[in-house]
Amino acid sequence: MPTQQQDYILRHIETISRLIARLRRKGKPLEPEDTAELNDALVLTLQLQEKNFGMPATQFLALSADAQFAALNRAETKTAGHERCLTYATLLKHTAELYAFRGSSDLALGARLLALHVAVSVALDHPIEAATVRALVSELLAILDGADLPPPTRELLDQFAAS
After folding, report:
1. What is the predicted pLDDT for the residue at 14?
2. Which of 30, 44, 86, 155 has an alpha carbon 20 to 30 Å from 11's alpha carbon atom?
3. Which of 104, 16, 117, 12 is nearest to 66 (CA)?
């Protein structure tokens, strides 16, 4: 992915992070203007995911988690592919928080589970930034504490724990 496009996505991730921090400080219930901003941010996260994949959401969301990982790494150096995957995992983590603020706990859980699967896949691929990846995996595991993990993700986590 060209650096300029990656920078664009990362700038918007920072904007979304600031919105999430503001919403945390305010707490629930959300004001109408907060709800509108939250919904706009959810649309933005999907658009950023489309930019990261270079394809419409209808295409990449139809792929399995492993196929999404492969799509993000296709035609990239290992480092660039990992960066795209970690960008995706971060977008999913933020998307989950936005869904949680909206009261969509099932969508939040799904986004977190996918983020974990992608992050662990990167961790098992011997990334250059191993500490950063491990920190993201640990953060997601803490958030998902007690959640029923899908078998493919559990298998990856077993491999991760053994590495």
Report:
1. 96
2. 30
3. 117
- What is the rounded CA–CA span in Å between residue 5 and residue 65? 23
What phi and psi values does residue 98 have, to the nearest 5 degrees?
Answer: -65, -45
How is the chain split into domains, by residue range?
3-162
Exposed/middle/buried for residue 162 (C-beta within 10 Å: 0-12, 13-18, 19+): exposed
Q: Give 8's contacts (C-beta < 8 A, 6+ positions apart).
A: 51
Question: Which amino acid, residue 103?
Answer: G
Q: How far apart are CA 157 and CA 31, in angstroms?
A: 39
Q: Tokens representing 102?
A: 């909206």
CA atoms within 13 A on the CB side of 111: 22
- Structure confidence by residue, pLDDT tens digits, 41-89: 999 999 999 999 999 999 999 999 999 999 999 989 999 999 999 999 9
Q: For the whole model, what pTM was predicted? A: 0.93
Secondary structure letter of residue 30 according to DSSP: P
1 falls in which pLDDT band (50, 70, 90)?
Answer: low
